[in-house]
Write a structure and sequence with these properties.
This protein has 499 residues and is α+β, with helices and mostly antiparallel strands. It is 58% helix and 9% strand. Strands 1-2-3-4 form a four-stranded antiparallel β-sheet, with no helix packed on it. The radius of gyration is 38 Å and the shape is elongated. The N and C termini lie far apart (95 Å).
């Protein structure tokens, strides 16, 4: 139906408004329902983890402050302010929010203003519209000014589904931003604690170098007195040279992690330095909760769920193409051959119309689009399920790693104590002439290996704690501690003092 410049337009308006109101309530395509996930009731671990209520309303942001390390806090602040990857994720979120506004604009009519001036010559040889009147060539002006309104009725919910998809995509971008923040801050913390573990290991090796130099002086003095053989002296010198080589290799590893921290904080690697720090490290209390908490806590799970909502809405957008397109068009303006009379009453013109277009044959294009959207939904559903499984795997890995590392830390402490006693016994036997110096060198090597293993385990515990926090979706400021992890590093962190 098309309405002209008078007549039926006023009568048709109430009917059209009522039809739009009645039909506007429907939206084609499936309504979104969050997928159900089958999750275990608790985690499988031997460690003393206790369940915690995550309290989703509490800010998760600065989870690294639980580690109580001022240098780590400063590095994380620099990352949040300068990291380019995080900035890119933030701009993507800004784009997604803009798309929501752009999609919602389709709810409203489009109003355009226009003006024009044209001078043309009509051909005398043009086809005749009236054979009773001969054609003639005419040169004339045409001045126009006016407004036009275009509005397409969303009778079948295509626009609503587009807005629904845009909003879900915006929420997905927000989750992606949170996930990028979590991943980058966890990566920085892991690199930082690995560097600190290397500092501790370097300190252990350096102290052994000091001891071995004193041992070399002792053997050299005995050699000068004719008590020790040249072989004893050569063995101790070889042991010292080997240990010095190990400290250089450790420094190579440390430099690589220092450069990684520089990149994460958007600092050129040559301009970044971090002073060595070999102090003890302690795992903070970490609220673990239950497996179902991951569906709310993990930003990557939230992103996958929002991607599923986007794919579901796209089915409705594709299905809406089966139904008629019903645009409303209105115009009001002025037209005159003389500019001075453009705003006189006779120059007024207006129009009001509605039309409908129904697809009849498109060789399966719309159906293919719906099939494409449905397949996208199934793919997003599979991705969501895989993300949930991966999340549970990462948490279980973290819990198992910390439980096993806790036992390993205790065993490593015992091994260091035993190795120290072996060194003492070997030195006494050598001084008393009951053993060769090879026994002393062997005991020194075993002690150094055990001490290095002890600080390595302490570093692994810190990294495992960081990745457990990441696997859980971040920290929970303001919550009461729910996991007693002090015993997880008690012996290991004190072990750096054992010599």
């Amino acid at each position: 139906m098309t309405l002209g410049r008078g007549g039926a337009a006023p009568r048709a308006r109430p009917a059209l408004a009522l039809a739009a109101l009645l039909l506007g309530a429907c939206a084609v395509g499936p309504d979104y329902r969050a997928p159900a996930s089958t999750l275990p009731a608790a985690w499988a671990t031997e460690a003393p983890w206790r369940a915690a209520a995550p309290q989703d309303g509490i800010e998760r942001g600065s989870w690294w402050r639980r580690f109580d390390d001022a240098r780590l806090d400063a590095l994380e602040a620099s990352l949040l302010e300068h990291n380019a990857t995080l900035e890119q994720a933030g701009e993507h979120y800004t784009q997604a929010r803009a798309l929501v506004r752009a999609s919602a604009a389709a709810y409203f009519p489009t109003l355009n203003a226009g003006a024009g001036a044209l001078r043309d010559r009509i051909s005398a040889s043009r086809p005749q519209a009236n054979y009773a009147v001969p054609n003639s060539s005419t040169v004339q002006n045409d001045f126009t000014a006016g407004f036009s309104v275009h509005y397409e009725l969303d009778l079948f919910g295509g626009v609503r589904r587009q807005v629904e998809a845009a909003r879900a995509a915006s929420e997905q971008a927000a989750a992606d931003l949170a996930n990028a923040r979590l991943v980058l801050t966890a990566e920085l913390a892991a690199d930082y604690f690995t560097l600190r573990a290397l500092d501790a290991e370097i300190d252990v090796v350096r102290q052994n170098i000091d001891q071995e130099r004193r041992a070399l002086d002792f053997v050299s003095a005995r050699h000068d007195m004719g008590v020790a053989s040249g072989l004893d002296l050569a063995q101790q010198q070889s042991q010292l040279d080997t240990t010095i080589t190990q400290i250089d290799l450790l420094r190579v590893q440390r430099a690589q992690f220092e450069h990684a921290l520089a990149t994460l904080t958007a600092t050129p690697a040559p301009a970044f330095t971090l002073a060595p720090q070999a102090g003890a490290m302690r795992i903070p209390d970490i609220p673990v909760g239950v497996p179902s908490d991951l569906l709310q806590r993990r930003p990557d799970v939230a992103s996958a769920e929002r991607a599923l909502a986007v794919a579901n809405a796209q089915i409705g957008v594709a299905t809406a193409a089966y139904f008629p397109s019903v645009p409303l068009v209105a115009g009001y303006g002025r037209e005159s051959a003389v500019l001075t009379t453009l705003f006189d009453a006779p120059a007024k013109l207006w129009s009001l119309g509605v039309s409908a277009t129904q697809p009849l044959f498109d060789a399966g294009r719309i159906g293919a689009g719906v099939d494409f959207a449905r397949a996208g939904y199934q793919g997003a559903l599979a991705q969501y399920r895989q993300t949930v499984l991966t999340a549970m795997q990462e948490v279980q890995d973290g819990l198992s790693s910390l439980a096993n590392l806790q036992r390993a830390a205790g065993e490593a402490g015992s091994a260091v104590g035993s190795a120290q006693r072996v060194v003492e016994i070997a030195n006494d036997r050598y001084t008393g002439g009951l053993a060769t110096y090879l026994d002393v060198v062997t005991a020194q090597q075993a002690l150094l290996a055990n001490q290095r293993q002890q600080v390595q385990i302490a570093g692994q515990q810190m990294v495992a704690a960081v990745f457990l926090v990441k696997a859980l979706g971040g920290g929970w400021e303001g919550m009461a501690p729910s996991v007693d992890t002090a015993t997880a590093t008690g012996k290991a962190t004190a072990g750096t003092a054992m010599r």
